[in-house]
Design goal:
Largest sheet: 3 strands, antiparallel
Shape: elongated
Strand content: 5-15%
Distance between the termini: 14 Å
Radius of gyration: 20 Å
Amino acid sequence: MTTKEVCEVTTVHEEVVTRVQNSLPELGAAVQIFKALADETRLKIAYSLTLEKELCVCDVAAVIGSSVATASHHLRYLREQALAKSQRKGKMVYYSLADNHVHQLVKIAHEHAAEGEKDGGS
């Protein structure tokens, strides 16, 4: 038996709607984070940086199977969105996740997706 995905009657709970509307923060910056991580290559890079504290650009390119230029482009985008940070060490540039929030976001997204696969996508 399947349930309908909509209410059978239309009743707006004005107090609840007003309370929620008044509590909604500006979400533009959060939208940008999810847009950045919505790209499979960038998410793969971010996940890789949960496995290793830092990776040089050449290692990231090898992990994602791309040129150094492509890896650098994705890493720069992640840095511009404040999801990653970079540090030059001699002739090498190393990237890491910006902070523990980003680490948690990436890990939780993966765990949630894995649960969905295990439960048959429901």
